[in-house]
Amino acid sequence: MDTVQYILGGLANIFTFQTMFYLIIGVLVGQIVGILPGLGPVTGLALLIPMTFGMDPIPALVMLTGVYYGAMFGGALTSIMFNTPGDAAAVVTTFDGYPLTKQGKAGLAIGTATIGSTIGGLVSTLLIVLLAPLVARLALAFGPAEYTILIALSFLLIIGLASKSKVKSGISALLGLLLALIGQDPITGTPRYTFGHLELLQGIDFVIVALGLFAIGEIISSLENYKELKDQKVGKVSKIFPNKKEFKQILGPIRNGTLIGFVVGLLPGAGATISSFLSYSIAKKSSKSPETFGKGNIEGVAAAESANNGSVGGAMVPMLTLGIPGSNSTAVLLGGMMILGLQPGPMFFTKYPDIAWTVIVSMFIGVIILFLMNTLLLKGFLQILRVPYSILAVSIIILAFLGAFSVNRSMFEVFLMGTFGCLGYFLKKNDYPLAPLVLTLVLGGLLEQNWRRALSISEGSYIAFFQSPVSISLLAIGVLVIIIPFIKKLTRKDTEGKEINV
Question: CB 3.0–4.6 Å: which of 55, 124, 363, 495 could bond 60 by disulfide?
C-alpha cells in the first residue's frame, strides 16, 4: 500500500509546472545529445550537471535522469541514417539499421527502434518499481564491512566484464582510485597528493573529471573523423511504423531484449553495450531467417534498441538502492546526486522516498514523452543532423569550459578539465575503458570510509569482513568472479589439446 501512495505522490510532484518543465528539458536534451555523433548520455550528463547547482533536488534529478534515457532513445537515429552510432550502446543498431536505410526503409528502421525503445523503457521502469524497494530492504542488512566488500566486488565485476583487455580495464580502475585519494585524509585531515596546490585540498570535483573525460575527450576524438562527419547528408524518411505482420515479427525480440537489457544492466560495468550485443545474438539464433541479419532485418534493430533501453532500468536499481552505478551514465548520475547532497544507498528509499519515487515515476512519463517526440517531431530532430559539426564542437567546448569555471569560479578547474580532456582522448585512443575509472573515482572515497570504519569497529581485526552471512556470500561471489575466467581458459586449452591428439 505504501508503494501505491509513494507512486501517487511521485505523480503529484511530476505534474507541477517546474518539474514537468525540467523533465521535458531533460528528455529533449538527451534526445539531441543521443542524435549527435560521438556524444551520448555521459557527455550530456556531464554538460548539464553544472546547471543543477542551486536547484531543488527533485527537478534537478528528473532532468538529469531524462538526459540519460533520452540519449538512449536518440542514439538510434544516427546509427540508422549514417551508420554512425551516437555512443557504444547504439553500435549494434547499425548492423541492420543502416542496411535498411540503403534499401530505402529508414523510416521503418526508425519506427521499429522507437517501438523497441519505448517498450524497453516502460517495462524496465515497471521492474524498478517491483525490485528497487525489495533490494533496498535487503541492503539494510549491510554494515561497513559488507558495504566495503560490495564496492570491491563491483570493481571486480567491471574489470571482469571488460570486453577487451582486462589488464587495461584494471589500470583504468586503479587510476580512478588514485584520483579519489587526492585531497585530505577523511580521518586525520592530512593532505594527500596535492603537490602543494591548495585547490586540491578538497579533492578533484567530479564535474571537472566528467567534463574533461567525456565532453572534451570525445570532441578531440571526433575531430579525427571530421571529414566523415562533415560529408554526412540526411536522406528522406517515409513510412515510419511497421505493419501488423512486421509488428508481430518484432514482438519476440523486443520482449527478450527488454528482459536481457534489464538483467545485464544490474551488473556493474555491463550496461547497454553488452546487453545489446547479447540480445542481438539471441534474436539471430532464434529467428526464422537468421541469414538476413546484418542485411536489413527489423528484428535486429528491435532486439538492439529494446535491450539498450531496458538496461537503463536495470542500471538504476543498484545505483539507487546500493549506491553502486551499473554503467558510465549512472556513475555520472551518482556523482550529480552527491553534488546535490544526496547519497543513494540502502537508506535512500527510507530517507528520501519522495525524491526516489518521483524520479522513478518521471522515467515512465518521460518515455511516453519521448515516444511522442520521436513520432511527431522526427523530421525536426533529423534537421539537427544538418548542423555543421564545427559549430557543434565549438558550442560543446564553450559549455564545458563554462561548466568547469562555475564549479569554484577558478581558472585552475578549467585547466584541470583540459588536462582530463587530453587524458580521456589518450585512454580512448589506446582502448582503455573509461567505465572502470569513473566507477572507482565515484566510489573510491566510500570504499575507504567503510573500510576504515569497519576496522575501527573491530579494533583493527580483519575478522570483521568474515563474520556475517552477507559478507561470506559476497566474498564467495568475488572468488568465483576471479577463478571462473582461469577455469574457462584451462578448459579451453584441454579441449584444444584433445582435438590435436585426435
Answer: 55
